Amino acid sequence: MQYVGMMTQIRRNNMRSVLLLLAFPLIILATVWVFLALVNYLGNGYYDVYGNVVHQLDEATVNAYFLSVLPWVVGIVGVWFAVAYFSNAAMVRHATGARPLERRENPRVYNIVENLCMTCNMDMPKINIVDDPQLNAFASGIDRNSYTVTVTTGLLNVLNDDELAGVIGHELTHIRNRDTRVLITSIVFVGIISTVMSLVVQMMYNSFIYGGMGHRRSDDERNSRMGIIAVLLVGVVCCAVAYFFTLITRFAISRKREYMADAGGAELCGNPLALASALRKISAHPGLQNVQRQDVAQLFIIHPMAMASGMMGFLDSLFSTHPDTAKRIAILEQF
Question: Which of 276, 56, 257, 84 lies closest to 176, judged by CA?
Fold first, then answer.
């Protein structure tokens, strides 16, 4: 295998991440166009001489509608993204139950973080803690004011200093490589599509439940209601497809960067075997299992859900935000 230096790999990952992040807004815009095209296609039906319904797509009309709604889509998504992006710190704290860790409460952690930050010449991030007897850690934030390393109480109680330094070095590498900013961006975009899909499904459900009440309705009313349901059904399908592709994109971003963070953490602490030992301990008792948001769970050093074997293992590997922990440990033990 040809050797690739750390900085070269970081540049490659950053370039790939830019391309992947550009895919998110393109997926949203493509979903809007496909939705308009499907509505136009299904709505432009006529009967041929044999009495069969023939549908056709009027691309000029679809493009005209798309250009008319484009400013609204960009504006709404832009405002939505900005609010979610800059409130990410509060979002992560609320989802995980994290709180600030004071130096007097645990000077050991502060000393390890300070020493590692001086080693790599980076500003010291904030330190949060989650009261969880099991083991996990993660980095979050988008800039110097919000960069944070969060650990569980169980992690501090079980790991020795060398192992804890390896884990914190892993999280500091995520911050140094701007991984947290990339992952927060992907979380926001996936959340936008997920929310829109939920709203469309709820609207369709209401149309079935409340629209079907009452029996004395004209044919025009019934046809109008069925048309609305058909449009909502098209919207659900489009959103589901878009959500599927954004998930794959997000997971690809996360998997690639975990290996780089392992390498960077091993380099920072100077002991790859210590980080390997820490990963082995964490994988046996991964904490933060009560976090309900899977988008936030992708930040953890080890995802609480174990990978299955066979076909389920393949599907889990496709949709997993993290590479297999055993593979990560094997790579670290090669150094």
Answer: 257
Set 59, 102, 114, 171: catalytic member: 171
Please choose, from the candidates 112, 164, 119, the residue with its C-alpha nearest in 3D space to the C-alpha of residue 137: 164
Closest CA to 128 of 105, 111, 144: 105
Which residue carries 């993660």 as its tokens?
138
Q: Supply the DSSP symbol for 52.
A: -
Q: Catalytic residue at 171?
A: yes
> Cβ distance 301 to 148 under 8 Å?
no
Q: Could you give the CA distance from residue 128 to residue 150 in angstroms, rounded to a whole number?
A: 4
The answer for residues whose C-beta is within 8 angstroms of residue 127's C-beta and 6 or more apart is: 100, 101, 109, 110, 113, 148, 149, 150, 151
Name 9's Cβ contacts closer than 8 Å, sequence gap at least 6.
Answer: 260
Burial 160-171 (b: 16+ CB within 10 A, else e): eebbbbbbbbbb
Radius of gyration, alpha carbons of the chain: 24
H/E stretch holding 32 reads: helix 6-43
- 99 bridge partner residues: 129
User: pLDDT for 252-306, tens place per residue?
Assistant: 666 678 888 998 999 999 999 999 999 999 998 887 877 877 778 888 998 776 4
Give the whole-angstrom CA distance, residue 158 versus residue 167. 12
User: How high does pLDDT run on average in the chain?
Assistant: 79
Helix (H, G, I), strand (E, B) or coil at 152: strand
- In DSSP notation, 244-295 reads HHHHHHHHHHHHHHHHHHHHHHHHHHT-HHHHHHHHHHHHHSB--TT---HH
For the whole prediction, is pTM greater than 0.85?
no
Backbone φ, ψ for residue 87 (5° rounding): -105, 20
Rounded Cα distance between 136 and 282, Å, is 6
